[in-house]
Amino acid sequence: MRMRLMLLGGGNALGQALIRLGAEEDIGFLAPRPPEGGWDAASLTQLLDETRPDAVINLAYYFDWFQAEVVSEERFMAQERAVERLAELCQHHAIRLLQPSSYRVFDGSRATAYSEKEEQVPLGLRGQALWRIEQSVRAACPRHVLLRFGWLLDDSVDGLLGRFLTRAEQDTELFLADDRRGNPTPVDDAARVIIAVLKQLDCLAPLWGTYHYGGYEATTSLALGQAILAEARAFRRLQVEEIGPQAHAARPDAADEPQHAVLACKKILHTFGIKPRAWRAGLPSLLDRYYRHV
To answer: What CA–CA distance (Å, rounded) separates 18 from 222?
Structure first.
C-alpha cells in the first residue's frame, strides 16, 4: 500500500477489525488517540495539518452511528460539524476521504432493495444526521467514497448484538419483527470491504461516489435473531427458548427504524469487484469474540 492511511476510530469494533485485517495483508494505519472529549473540528484541523495522510477512514463516531441505543441531538450536531470540517480539510490537503453511512438514510417504505440512486428520506435523528453528513461530504470533498452499510453486527458488549444477547440470558420472552428486512453485516465483512476499496484507491482509480454494501441473503430481524441464538447456545445457557414474531409497527423503535432496509449491492460489485459474503458464515467467529469479552 503506497498511500499513508489514517484511521480515526481505531479503538472501536470496526476500527479493530480493520487493523486486524490490515495486519494480515501488511497494511498499516496511523491510528491517533482521540482527545479527551473525542474528535471535534479543532482537533481534526490540528491533526491533519500536522500529519497530511493520503487517505482518511473516518470511523470516529462509529458506535453512535451504528450501535448505540440512544444518542442525543446535540451530540449528532457536534459530529456533523466535525465531519464537515474533516471534509473541508481533506479537500484542502488533497486527501481521499472514506466515510461510512447507513441504510438509515432511507425511510423503509420501499419493499424492494434500495439502490444508490433512490431518494433519501430518513426517519429518526440518526438517519437525518447521517443524511446531512453525506451531503456535507459530497459538497466539500469531491474525492470521497461514501459506504452505506446494512445491519452492522459487532462484538461490543453494549452494541446491538450485545444488548440482544444480554436480554436472551436474562429474559424468558423475546420478540422481534418478522416483517422487517435488511442485510446483516458482520463487522469483519465490513472491514474486508473497506480494505478492498482502499486497495483500488491506492491504484489511483478515481472511483468516487456512494456505494452500498450488506451481507449476502437479506433476511428478517426475527430470522437473524433465531440464527444468533442458535450459535450463542454453543457458548452460554440462555433463558429464552424461542423468539416470538411481532409486527414492525408494534416495535418500540418503529418510528426510527426503516421497515425495509435491504440494500442493492450491484454497484460496488461492478465498480470494485466486491462480492457480498454470506452473513451466516461470519456469526461463529463474531460470537466467539463477543463471549471472550464478557
So the answer is: 29
- 270 dihedral zone (left: phi>0; alpha: psi -120 to 50; beta): alpha
**In whole numbers, what is the pLDDT of the chain averaged over residues?**
95
- Which DSSP category does 248 fall into? G
- Under a CB-based contact definition with an 8 Å cutoff, are residues 56 and 98 in contact? yes
Strand 219-220, strand 181-182: pairing: antiparallel
Per the CB < 8 A criterion, the answer to whether 258 and 106 are in contact is: yes
Domain boundaries, given as residue ranges, for the chain: 5-153+184-217+262-277
CA dist 100 → 44, 114, 131, 145, 226 (Å): 17, 17, 11, 8, 28
Which tens digit of pLDDT belongs to each residue from 68-84? 999 999 999 999 999 99
Give the confidence band of 54 by pLDDT, cuts at 50, 70, 90. very high
Domain 5-153+184-217+262-277 has CATH 3.40.50.720: yes
- Rg of the chain, C-alpha, whole Å: 19
- Between the two ends of the chain, the Cα-to-Cα distance in Å is 35
Q: Across the chain, how many H-helices and E-strands are there?
A: 10, 12
Three cell numbers, residue 199: 486497495
